[in-house]
Amino acid sequence: MDFSFSSDQLLFQDNIRSFLLNEVTPERLRELWLVDGGRCDALWAQLVELGLSAMTVPEIHGGMGMDELDFILLAQECGYAGLPEPLVETMLVGVPLLVGLDERHAALKHHWLARVAEGTARLAIGEPGNPLVSDAHVADLLLLPYGDEVHAVERAAVGLTHNASVDPSRQLFQVEWAPSAATCVAEGEQGRRLWAAACNRGALANAAQLLGLAKRMVDLAVDYTFERKQFGKPVGSFQAVKHLMANVAVQIEFAKGPLYRAAYAVAHGQPGQAVPVSHAKLACAEAAALAAKHAIQVHGAMGYTWEVDLHLFMKRAWALDKVWGDRGLHKARVRAALFDGQLAIGAGTTF
Amino acid sequence: MPLSASAMPNSPVEGMPMDLTYTAAQQAFRAEARAWLEANVPARPLQSFDTEQGFAEHRAWEARLNEGRWGMVTWPTALGGRGCDLIEWLIFEEEYYRAGAPARVNQNGIFLLGPTLMEYGSDAQKARFLPRMATGTDIWAQAWSEPGAGSDMAAIRSRAERVGDHYVINGQKTWSTRAVWADWVFGIFRTDPNSQRHHGLTFILLPLDSPGITVRPIEQLNGLPGFAEIFFDDVKVPVENALGGEGMGWHVAMSTAGFERGLMLRSPARYQETARRLVQLYQHNRESADRDPAIGEAVMRAWLDAEAYTLATYLCASQLEKGGKIGPESSTNKIFWSELDQRLHETALSILGLRGELLPGAPAAGDVGQWLDGFLFAQAGPIYAGTNEIQRNIIAERMLGMPRA
Lengths: 351, 405
What we know:
heterodimer, A: alpha+beta, Butyryl-CoA Dehydrogenase, subunit A, domain 3, four-stranded mixed sheet, 9 strands, 55% helix, B: Butyryl-CoA Dehydrogenase, subunit A, domain 3, four-stranded antiparallel sheet, 12 helices, AcylCo_DH-like_C (chain A), FAD (chain A), AcylCo_DH/oxidase_C (chain A)
């Protein structure tokens, strides 16, 4: 029993954090808002150069063969930086979905996984039940649900209609496409299984980013409490302000365990991973929602402006809260497992 | 500053990977603890240790635990423990609460003073106090707070004046847990009369039957004297009863408080078992409970939070096993478990409805009275061991680095 990350995993996290802090600055995020499509090939190329696009791709396809647990701290850092590129979904949702296809599609699998690993292709994934697909415009391949079926559709074959989000860094599209036998890569029981796994991975990916976002909002707000002075003192010296931030810190601290537990469950393909994943998504989403609410309060009127950077992260948190299962869905999954008596509970049942 | 590609791995992660399975040795340890507890835990619950008879029953239970070498599993084997690491300690606690074993009347000693003695005590002090603590011969009370020093503990005024090879103690302590029937007490006293605040304090251990001590019981919400005021009137204590050196009292006390806020005071198994009972209570009363949809939600939430507390404790224990230290983030623990305990019991009373107010002995109460007992005790959680407001200040200033007041 060892519930801690390896020194290598922590080292990657440090490396990626410093890279993102230097390269994905609020100024750069704001510049991208002004660019058509809101994405930057140069930034994607930097991520590729670091090996990030190869991380979860199996070695036989030219990747590094790492798992969800190896990537989870990096996903958290991507959240902290507010990285707009679709790295986390590509690595944690798209790649495993392709990997899960059976041997009939070996050629397609290898083609796309190798391209993702070498950085020449990005994936967009249609969340079942969500009419919008994020980053479809920069994706080379879209993985889309049609009932239980999984369809792999190249971008040239779809029509996209942009939908503006409250978060200017998000790029959302309605996708017009025609499912066919040629695009169908999984169906029936296999399709159901793949989409169920994809939904868990999507929830995990968002949970990690939300935890990173929560931490970023606290850091921004804490910095601001030194700068802003009222009654002759930094506002952060007042208890009422301190306690707003402390309450968020408590939520963040107690969301880590559920997040890492869920990443472990997914990485190890444990049965019954729905409950830990839903726990992670709920805990991280709630931490981020409270962080947003208290961070804007601590910033006072400045927090309500376009000028202050808080909204870059706050708006992303508001959006990701609802994607890959909103709280209603995740609560319902936990309740069903907890109250139908199937789940062993009590002391000694956690692992 | 782009990172060089060589900073990234080119092979799957090296080093010790996370492993959320118990080793064969850990499983064997769990089985051994479970078997002993099943054979030894009293069939009927003991009376409250805040009654004279209950105190004696709990003292006897401490002795029995010690005979089985299950009293202080984290202590070294030479001192009657098992030298358990923190993961084994968590396993033992899980089995302890699963078995419904009695509350630890000597928790002030075993979980707070014990670790402090091991860190700061001389060999002579360890030999003198630890074995008697282990057998339940000495049950310990704690004496931190004073009428004018609660959250502001550095405002302590009780004096210990050095006279030759003795201290002479005068003053008053209050909210002293277990002091009514305990044998010894530990606390901090002002040894330097010219000192201010957290300077000039000394951590002193003394018998509660010392001449000059008057203990006045204070009844708690449940009507039982769970704590007391202690009056000191020229109480003589040998200087060798000081722990960690004269003037070092604040430092030593903070480490004790660290244990209290941190891992040792409230093991997660306690809340997991309460949450399990709450889920059962909800399932048995679902029809009436579901008239308020918030109740099912609260039950689910309480269970999730008990799991989150467990996971956080395993994370922390795993860090400590790798050589990490408990830092200011332990203040988040105290807030989390104390507020969780309140929600667990508030939710139970909502489910119980009219029966919820019945005392454990009331004829119509059945076994529901336990929930009321727990509810009352849960009200103290956000107050003792440093109020949650103080913890929030600590989190803001020391963990988040916000400006001091």
